[in-house]
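STRUCTURE:
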C-alpha cells in the first residue's frame, strides 16, 4: 500500500478531511490526517511526507506558518493549499512564499489527483536536477581524481596547462583508469563549465543511429524518425562534447565527424539547414588508435584533429603507490554511503592490494573496496576482508593475475634481481627507506644493511645526515 506517495492532510473540518483521505487511500496513496497546525508540526518532526495538503484558514497566523517561507521545516515536502474563494488573498501570499500549488474548494477527487500528480512530478524532476547538479559539481572535480604518483602528477600538470584552452584532447588508457572522470574534470574546470558537458558513447551505437545521436535528425529523415531530434553536437554548443570509445566509430561516421570538426557546422540528418556549433571535443579510447590507423580502421586525419593534446592515464599496476591512497579514498566514500564507521586500511591489507595486478584498474579497486566495506565488521579494512578477491580470481597463491616479471631466456642472477627490486621499490617510495622496507616485507634494519651492501646513495639521504 501507499505506492503512489505519502500525503498529510491538515484540515479542521473532519468530514471533508476524512472523505478526501478515504478517496486518496483508494487510489493507493498513503494518507495521514490532522486537524491543526500544531498537530501537523508534531507529526512532521517524526515522519516525512511527499505532499502536504493544507487548508488556508490555518494560514497565516493560523498555525501553519512553518510550512512555507525561508524557515520552512518541510523543505522536502510539496505543499498544496486548499482554499475557498474567500481566502484567495492569503493564497497569493503563501504561494509567493513557496507553496507549490493550490486547489479551490469545492473540488472533485479527479482534479485533486491531477494536482497531486503534477506536484509529485515536479518534485521528482527537482530531485533529479539536484542529483545531476551534485554529480556535475562533486563527481567531476580534479580534487576527486586521486593520485600522487609521479605518473599521475605528470597527468595533472598537463591537464592544468590545457584545461582552460579550447584544444581538442584525446584521453587514452586502459579500461577503468579514469578517462571519463578526467574528461568531466577538464570540462568543469574550463571556461565552458557553465555550459553542457555532453557524453556520447560511440561504441554503443552504430552508423545511422550514432549519426542521428551526434547530429540529430529532422522529422521523417528515415523510417521511425517520427519527431525532430536535436543532436549531441547542438546540445554541446559552447560546452564540451565527450566522444567516448571513439576507436569504435565506423569509417563512414568518422568522415562526417571530421567534416564537422573542420567546418564547425553541419546539417541534421534529412535536413538542409546549416547549423553552426562551437563545441570543445574531448575524446577517449582504450584502444590503440595508432594500431587502428595502421589497420585502416581509423582515419589518420581525424586522429590529428582530435589528438591536439594527448593525455595518457597509466594503468594502476604502473603506479602502485596510488593504490593505498585510492583505497582509503573509497573506504571513506563507501563508509559514508553505507553509514559505517570504517576509516582505515590496515598496512597489511594495503600491501595485499598493492600486489594485485588490477586488470580493471581503478574501477576494479573501487568495486573491491565497496564490497569489503559492506562486509567488514571492524573499524578498519583488514586482509581477511579482501580474501574474496582470491576466490573471485580462483587463485591459490597471491592475487597476481600474471607472472610478477618476465624471465629472460638466459635466466637472471638472484643478486641482480635483488638489486633491481630494491632500487625500484626505493624509487616507487620516493627513496623513503622505511616505506620501501614495508613494501618489501623486511625490517628497516635489513633494508639499511642491503642499501649499504649495494652501495646505493640518494641525495635525500645525504641531506638528512
Ligand atoms: N584517480 C581516481 N581517483 C578517484 N576515482 C577514480 C580515479 N580513477 C578512476 N576513478 C573512478 O573509477 C571509476 C572508473 O573510471 P572511469 O569511468 O572514468 O574510467 P574509464 O577510463 O572511462 O573506463 P572505461 O574505459 O571502462 O570506460 C569511476 O567510478 C571513477 O570515478
Ligand atoms: Mg569510460
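SEQUENCE:
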Amino acid at each position: 500500500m501507499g505506492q503512489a506517495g505519502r500525503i498529510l492532510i491538515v484540515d479542521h473540518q473532519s468530514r471533508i478531511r476524512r472523505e478526501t483521505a478515504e478517496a486518496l487511500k483508494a487510489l493507493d496513496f498513503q494518507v495521514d490526517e490532522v486537524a491543526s497546525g500544531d498537530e501537523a508540526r508534531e507529526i512532521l518532526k517524526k515522519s516525512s511526507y511527499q505532499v502536504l495538503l493544507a487548508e488556508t484558514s490555518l494560514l497565516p497566523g493560523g498555525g501553519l506558518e512553518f510550512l512555507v517561507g525561508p524557515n520552512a521545516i518541510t523543505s522536502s515536502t510539496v505543499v498544496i493549499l486548499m482554499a475557498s474563494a474567500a481566502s484567495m488573498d492569503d493564497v497569493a501570499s503563501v504561494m509567493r512564499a513557496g507553496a507549490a500549488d493550490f486547489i479551490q474548494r469545492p473540488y472533485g477527487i479527479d482534479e485533486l489527483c491531477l494536482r497531486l500528480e503534477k506536484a509529485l512530478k515536479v518534485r521528482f524532476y527537482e530531485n533529479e536536477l539536484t542529483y545531476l547538479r551534485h554529480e556535475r559539481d562533486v563527481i567531476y572535480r580534479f580534487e576527486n581524481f586521486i593520485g600522487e604518483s609521479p605518473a599521475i602528477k605528470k597527468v595533472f600538470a598537463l591537464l592544468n596547462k590545457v584545461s582552460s584552452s579550447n584544444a581538442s584532447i584525446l584521453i587514452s588508457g586502459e579500461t577503468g583508469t579514469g578517462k571519463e572522470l578526467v574528461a568531466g574534470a577538464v570540462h568543469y574546470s574550463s571556461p565552458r563549465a557553465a555550459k553542457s558537458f555532453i557524453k556520447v558513447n560511440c561504441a554503443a551505437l552504430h552508423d545511422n543511429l550514432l549519426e542521428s545521436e551526434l547530429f540529430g535528425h529532422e522529422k521523417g529523415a528515415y523510417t521511425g524518425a517520427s519527431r525532430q531530434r536535436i543532436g549531441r553536437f547542438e546540445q554541446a554548443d559552447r560546452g564540451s562534447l565527450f566522444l567516448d570509445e571513439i576507436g569504435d566509430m565506423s569509417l563512414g561516421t568518422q568522415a562526417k565527424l571530421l567534416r564537422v570538426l573542420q567546418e564547425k557546422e553541419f546539417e541534421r540528418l534529412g535536413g538542409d539547414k546549416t547549423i553552426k556549433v562551437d563545441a570543445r571535443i574531448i575524446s577517449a579510447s582504450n584502444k590503440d588508435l595508432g594500431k587502428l590507423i595502421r589497420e585502416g580502421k581509423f582515419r589518420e586525419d581525424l586522429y590529428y584533429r582530435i589528438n591536439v593534446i594527448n593525455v595518457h592515464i597509466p594503468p594502476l599496476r604502473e603506479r602502485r603507490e596510488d593504490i593505498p591512497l585510492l583505497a582509503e579514498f573509497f573506504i571513506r566514500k563507501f563508509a559514508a554511503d553505507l553509514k559505517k564507521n570504517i576509516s582505515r586500511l590496515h598496512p597489511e591489507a594495503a600491501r595485499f592490494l598493492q600486489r594485485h595486478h588490477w586488470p580493471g584498474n581503478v574501477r576494479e579497486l573501487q568495486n573491491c573496496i565497496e564490497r569489503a566495506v559492506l562486509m567488514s565488521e571492524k573499524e578498519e579494512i583488514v586482509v581477511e576482508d579482501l580474501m574474496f578477491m582470491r576466490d573471485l580470481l580462483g587463485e591459490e597463491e597471491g592475487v597476481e593475475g600474471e607472472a610478477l616479471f618476465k624471465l629472460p631466456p638466459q635466466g637472471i642472477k638472484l643478486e641482480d634481481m635483488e638489486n633491481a627490486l630494491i632500487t625500484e621499490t626505493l624509487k616507487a617510495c620516493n627513496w623513503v627507506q622505511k616505506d620501501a622496507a614495508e613494501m618489501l616485507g623486511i625490517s628497516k634494519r635489513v633494508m639499511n644493511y642491503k642499501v649499504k651492501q649495494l652501495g646505493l646513495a640518494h641525495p635525500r639521504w645525504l641531506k638528512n645526515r
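REMARK: The first strand starts at residue 5 and ends at 10.
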